[in-house]
């Protein structure tokens, strides 16, 4: 089955700096890669996703890049704000036609004012 | 306009006492999932329903069962909860009703936090 590795496990930045979280996956058939943000005690919220036919996608301060050859994808957050502090999970779809996801281990992002 | 609803939000049960968690959705999605999430860990898929077809993960203990009486509702039954089953249980939905589509976004409910005494 799919295996997703996520790094780093914790990330601390100053407000206004950029943050980058990286994930690798094992199943070359995976074709969908979402990123979820989860605040303490709350549900995971989709913040951005990318499909295998696209190399990069951007939404305001958030961007995701995908390298299918190397089987890795990254989340980039620019101009970080304290409210960006949360746990971020990457995930990969196992290549089936619907959304069975395998999650990475999570990154605790702390943005210091 | 809640889309995925879970009840109760907090559940306390005793060791070995059966408990049922419920999930309902207003999205008319054909796929429903149950995840277990322990503190500081990623959500772990327990099983999912594709329409009425039940799909169990290989490492999901037999202690966990599920029912989906109709499109909107799905239940998680824990037959004999142990201390290790204390966790947040997340329900999620997605759709796959367009042939050849890859519409995979999953929508999560708020979760039920289970405490086992």
Radius of gyration of chain A: 13 Å
What structural category arises from helix and sheet content of chain B?
mainly beta
Specify the helix fraction band of chain A.
under 10%
Poorly predicted runs of 5 or more residues of chain B = none
Quaternary state reads: heterodimer
- How much is the average pLDDT of chain A? 92
Give a short account of the largest sheet of chain A.
6 strands, mixed
- Low-confidence parts of chain A lasting 5 or more residues at pLDDT below 50? none
Mean of residue pLDDT of chain B? 91
Main beta sheet of chain B: 7 strands, mixed
Chain pair with largest interface:
A-B, 23 and 27 residues
Large-scale geometry of chain B:
globular
How many E strands of chain A?
A: 11
Q: What pattern of helices and strands is seen along the backbone of chain B?
A: EEEEEEEEEEE
Helix/strand class of chain A: mainly beta
Q: Strand fraction band of chain B?
A: over 45%
Short description:
The complex is a heterodimer of chains A (113) and B (117). Chain A contains no helices and 11 strands.
Summarize the structure in words.
The complex is a heterodimer of chains A (113) and B (117). By secondary structure, chain A is mainly β. Helix content of chain A is 0%, strand content 56%. Chain A has strands at residues 4-7, 10-14, 19-25, 32-38, 45-51, 56-59, 62-67, 72-77, 86-93, 101-103, 107-112. In chain A, the strands form two sheets. In chain A, strands 2, 4, 5, 9, 10 and 11 form a six-stranded mixed sheet that branches. A five-stranded antiparallel sheet of chain A has the order 1-3-8-7-6, with no helix packed on it. The mean pLDDT of chain A is 92. In chain B, strands 2, 4, 5, 6, 9, 10 and 11 form a seven-stranded mixed sheet that branches. The radius of gyration of chain B is 14 Å and the shape is globular. The model of chain B has no long low-confidence stretch (mean pLDDT 91).
